[in-house]
Amino acid sequence: MIYITGDTHNTEDMSNLSTKNIKLCCMEQNTDFHAITAAIVLGDFGLPWSSDCSIDEAGIHPTDHTDRYLLKWYKQKPFKILAVMGNHDNYDIIEKLPEVEIFGAKVLKVSDNVFYLKRGEVYIIEDKRFLVLGGAMSDDKAWRKAHESWWEQEEWSEEEKETCLAKIKENNSFDYVLSHTGPSVGITLTDDYFCNEENQKQLHRDSNAVFNDKIDSLISYKKWFFGHWHSDWGYEHYKESKYIPLYHQGIVI
After folding, report:
1. What gap in Å lies between CA 243 and CA 190, rounded to an integer?
2. E strand or H helix at 14, and its extent?
3. CA 49/CA 51 separation, integer angstroms
């Protein structure tokens, strides 16, 4: 089984992947914790956060004590951890990670059981077909420092978009979509403010959300999971909604 949850923000929300939290969600969904083979974080994974980090074929070797602690904690997990790229992620390090192939496509290796899923890639995980998007525009970037707490690569390059669209053209049918921010229609579920059509236009300042809207119009799928908005609306409304925003809660599929 696959467990899907929201942003972990390095150590700030690491409890999203704690055994206690996952077991509680599994119990509520009548599923077995021990059957989980992969846990997916919907962006803002935040490991490593510090750029003071060496990299080789085994993954990262951080010197920052917080990153070291978190990496050790994740290595003890009995399942693979797969991170969608968010906006609060260190892209300078992510881009240097070694590529390996699992689930039928390339991933970026953080450690033996921790990987970043690449934007625009298609993965087959437990016989389910996933389209992975990712990224979001940081509204607070004016208060952050470039390449230290904010990275411009949070927004897709045109080359990434073209590659993704080419894959969709080959086969536009998926079981699930994974992203950081959502498409506009999904985001409106997280905040009544965006139910107003005029206010919803503000979402179009984020090129990631605009691209997600385009993707949404081109593909078929069962559910679209996303984080970023710190909302667990999707956990409570999983059965009736195809758009599933998550934060602290987790869905087992």
Report:
1. 10
2. none
3. 7
How far is Cα 89 from Cα 49, in angstroms, rounded to an integer? 7
**Integer Cα distance of 152 and 234 in angstroms:** 29
pTM above 0.85, yes or no: yes
End-to-end CA distance of the chain: 6
Contact 181, 191 (CB under 8 A): no
Cβ neighbours of residue 89 closer than 8 Å, sequence gap 6 or more: 43, 44, 45, 46, 83, 151, 154
Tokens 């080959």 belong to residue: 170
Buried b (16+ CB within 10 A) or exposed e, 174-203: bbbbbbbbbbbebbbbbeeebeeeeeeeeb
Q: What confidence tens digit (pLDDT) does each residue in 84-130 have?
A: 999 999 999 999 999 999 999 999 999 999 999 999 999 999 999 99
Residue with tokens 């949404």: 216
Write the pLDDT tens digit of every residue in 160-206: 999 999 999 999 999 999 999 999 999 998 888 888 888 888 888 99
The tokens describing 104, both together, are 């039928």
Q: Is the dihedral of CA 63, 67, 73, 74 positive or negative?
A: negative
CA distance to 3, 7, 93, 100, 125, per residue, from 108 (Å): 19, 18, 10, 6, 16
Report the distance separating Cα 132 and Cα 120, nearest Å.
6
CA 142 to chain centre: 23
